[in-house]
Design goal:
mainly beta, 4-stranded antiparallel β-sheet
Length: 138
């Protein structure tokens, strides 16, 4: 079965088509697959080399990270809920939001006491590890 996927490698997004080669028994075949071929006029003997795929354009803004006031994501996942709003006072380890990764929910707590000055994500957003989630100013 062919599947169309979007993957991110080193911050670059690629659209790829993959083939699921698992069999009903769960074994995986490892037969090498030829690269994509370009249609050739009738009578041509050698397939033309395909050019490297171009990365898909990214529509989202670059991820905010770093800084001592930013609470960074400890792992990649999807934001399920946000438990604070801008202006809220928080103490160390107060729950800020919930991330889901590999069907497990992780509560992300405040790394320091202060006030929420910015929320960089919203429910449903996919986040990378070390991406800023919330900014807390003393």
């Amino acid at each position: 079965m062919m599947r169309h996927l979007r993957i991110t490698v080193d911050g670059r997004v690629y659209d790829v088509v993959v083939e699921d080669v698992t069999q009903a028994s769960g074994a995986v075949t490892t037969t090498p697959m030829p690269g994509p071929l370009v249609a050739q006029p009738e009578g041509a003997r050698m397939p033309a080399a395909a050019s490297a795929p171009t990365p898909a354009p990214t529509a989202s803004a670059p991820a905010v990270s770093g800084g001592p006031d930013n609470r960074l994501a400890p792992l990649a996942g999807v934001v399920l809920e946000i438990n604070v709003k801008i202006g809220d006072a928080v103490d160390v380890d107060d729950p800020l939001l919930v991330l889901e990764a590999m069907k497990m929910k992780t509560v992300i707590g405040a790394h320091k006491a202060g006030r929420i000055t910015a929320i960089h994500v919203k429910p449903g957003d996919a986040v990378d590890a070390d991406q800023a989630l919330v900014t807390i100013a003393a």
